[in-house]
Amino acid sequence: MLTTPDNNWAVIVGNGATGGAGLTQATGAAVMFETTNHLVATYDGSNLVLYVNGGQSSPTTPADYHPVTANPLYIGAGRPDLPEPRFPWVGKIQCVALYKGALTLDDVIKHFHNGNGTDP
Which of 2, 9, 21, 80 could pair with 17 in a Cys bridge, judged by C-beta atoms 3.0 to 4.6 Å apart? Predict the structure, then answer.
């Protein structure tokens, strides 16, 4: 997860190639500053989708995507493969969860409302 230069949320996946080759990005809604943002990225084997506060981005199909299990998953660390500055996340990250399969829109909305104490 990251923010684009125009302050929208985005998620990027790659095919394991070096130097940024083979990256696919899904872009979501604008960042809501000074408040909690609920972010979910899913990949169902065909489509990469980013959900921001219960809203869905347009699905994108990564080119030749396959999970890279040889590298660690970094959350909030920025780009540890780059020299300083690595652009780490400045803010708070809470309630990180990884699932075996892609969540549905209904699942995402339920998680969003449960986290905010509201009814869907």
Answer: 21
